[in-house]
Amino acid sequence: DKGGWSSFMQKEVSEQPTAVADTLRGRLHDGRVVVGELEELGDDVLRSIRRITVIACGTAAYAGMVAKYAIEKWARVPVEVELSHEFRYREPVIGPDTLVISVSQSGETMDTLMAVKYAREAGARTISVCNTQGATIPRESDAAIYTHAGPEVAVASTKAFVAQIAALYLFGLHLARVLGTASAEELETAAYELEHVPAKLATVLEQGERIAQLAHWMADTRSVLFLGRHVGYPIALEGALKLKELAYIHAEGFAAGELKHGPIALIEPGQPVFVVVPSPRNSGSLHPKVVSNIQEIRARGARVIAIAEAGDAAVLPFADEVLRIPLAGPLFEPLLAVVPLQIFAMELSAAKGLDVDQPRNLAKSVTVE
Ligand code: F6R
């Protein structure tokens, strides 16, 4: 039941504040993160982990890429993120000190399931981040941290994505507490930030109309580029994926630092480029670097749509459009910045008269290789 919304996707995009709040529920206790499923696994197991490999496909892999920055920062354990179908065919170096975290909304993605089985046979510990109770992947894993986003019907993943990031962040904060790798203050601030994500997501959703208008103006666009840096990089990749699958438009996401290593050659007058801008307050030197990227592409005629923090005035002279996200700590911005990109892709699909919930050639869960 679409509950009055014109598509399941629209409904699910609007449910993101609840998806995150429900995923956090019972796991945050006055600034202390305790994930019951990890308690059951035991602190000794967590202390024995020397590296973490996240395996997933598509949007779920981008959630893993975002979480890598946070887990490494808080828990100081190296994290690599790999596509399940690449992982299982390359004889990965894993063993009992490796924790393999699979991320899957459906819990049935064949490549991810086979990668989990491979990891288990190699002696690794396995944790599943999954949105579907009792699905195959969590059953095949040592522990499951469920996301509580509720059923996701639209083929394009939205609320599951933000819930996956929230769950992986909870994992990172729990691990950091057990390992003692972050100060009590840092852990508390992060827990506080996490707790405020749902309300901030609701604020971002209020810009839906404006983004819809932008999408309508751009309905004839043939190619869109997305740039981001640090945690904004996987968000750029996710923005491009959403646009490809929903609006059938050629889209590419790049790490902003790569521009000069090739992609800037693509910029010609009128080329739309979405830029995920890090916060000017607490991202160190990243903010001026991304602003200077914006100047570089603008000088070559790009049409820049910046996704920037409220009050960030530095982007104004150079961006054609600015979509705002509320103030948040640097690691928490991706949870907010992805939303305008989801809405843009959804509205562009609708503007082109396409099936938003069931894009061509795609299935909700890929249970074949
Ligand atoms: C994109 C999308 C896919 C899935 C991918 C993994 O919008 O939905 O990229 O994220 O097929 O699916 P799960 O998470 O079910 O393993």
TrEMBL record:
UniProt EC number: 2.6.1.16
Chief localisation class: cytoplasm
Organism whose genome encodes this protein: Agromyces rhizosphaerae
Name of the featured protein: Glutamine--fructose-6-phosphate aminotransferase [isomerizing]
Cellular location(s): Cytoplasm
The keyword Cytoplasm appears for this protein: yes
Lineage: Bacteria, Bacillati, Actinomycetota, Actinomycetes, Micrococcales
Function: Catalyzes the first step in hexosamine metabolism, converting fructose-6P into glucosamine-6P using glutamine as a nitrogen source.
Gene: glmS
Transmembrane segment boundaries: none
Residues of the full protein shown: 248 to 616 of 616
Active site: 364
